[in-house]
Amino acid sequence: MLPFLCMANKTKKQSVTLESLDRKMHVLALATDKKIDALADVVDDLARITKHGFDSVNKRFDEVDKQFELIDARLDRMDARIAMIEKDVALLRENLVRRDTIDDILARLEYLEKKIGVKV
User: Fold this and answer.
1) What are the pLDDT digits (tens) for 108-117?
2) What dihedral do alpha carbons 47, 45, 55, 60 form, nearest 10°?
3) What are the DSSP calls for 79-101, one per residue?
């Protein structure tokens, strides 16, 4: 027979019975349940803290997204204005005379004035 199943120890060091083993198992089960409950509470607390953190981050991302939408709208308006400015500059370039052409015309005019004898 196994020593822990003996009804009584002949040396009287320790008496082991099925009832005592059952009581010890019951006490261990209760202690284990309490520890599991305590760990579950800790896990629940950590889950709540984590959820709160994610909620605040999501809220901040929503605010950032709104700001990006405003910036995109402003950039679209600026793009339209720049396109109009580019068209205006292109039209001005078509109707402008280059500086070297003006200098050439002035030189020729001055030459003609000298030939004709007109003093300016």
Assistant:
1) 999 999 989 8
2) -120
3) HHHHHHHHHHHHHHHHHPPPHHH
